[in-house]
Specification:
Elements (H helix, E strand, L loop, with lengths): L1 H33 L18 E2 H7 L5 H14 L2 E3 L4 E4 L1 H22 L4 H14 L7 H5 L10 H26 L4 H6 L4 H14 L8 H14 L1
Antiparallel strand pairs: 1-3, 2-3
Helix pairs in contact: 1-4, 1-7, 1-9, 1-10, 5-7, 5-10, 7-9
Amino acid sequence: MASYAATIAPVINAVHVNVHASARQERDDHAEACGLTPGFLGDLRYALPARPVTRDDLSVVYRYGSAADLDAEIGDHLRQGTLAEDGDGVLRLTAAGLSYVHGLYEVHAKAVARLWAAYDVPALAALLGEVLEGAVAEPGGAFAVMAPPYEPEGTPPGVLLFNRVAALRYHRADAHAAAWREAGLTADTVVELGCGPLRDRIEEDTNRRAAQPYATLTGGERETLFEGLLALI
């Protein structure tokens, strides 16, 4: 199962990146029309409408970035009125922020319709839904912040697939973080780590941990998911 996790990870990443690339111009036009700088709302589009977050939550999601940069971006969103912060430091999406997200869902719906019209997207989205439902979150990890994704009634299957793929990437991100912590490294030191036995051990441990959600599928379903996502690239 670890080998499956290793093999499907770059496919998932490629599906995710390709949609963003296809939607880039329309996404930028949407942000301009809304008069805002979206920043991390693009990443958090399927999380913030479903649940509030704390600054600590965001520091886990952006564990490889700097605290100063994250605080600055939070401040930008508070000033733009896309986020509001209560007295306990909990951040919530505002009506303006939600309006932006709904528009972004429409942008992504157009992009995936262009990219995936010839494929059985509903079936792949359903398999990804099973994987997400069976995934066990690392305590205090990013996956618990980012999943399950926001899926309002009427969300097209292509957008469901895109956001489920995006959310699943955080399960692997947490698996990787758990692996490098087990090896005695930090977010800073693992970024600087080169090739070698230690890197190999961390990747092996990452794949072992990241395989867990796929155990909910049969062997045939795992093959269908892999081949189906590969075809979307």
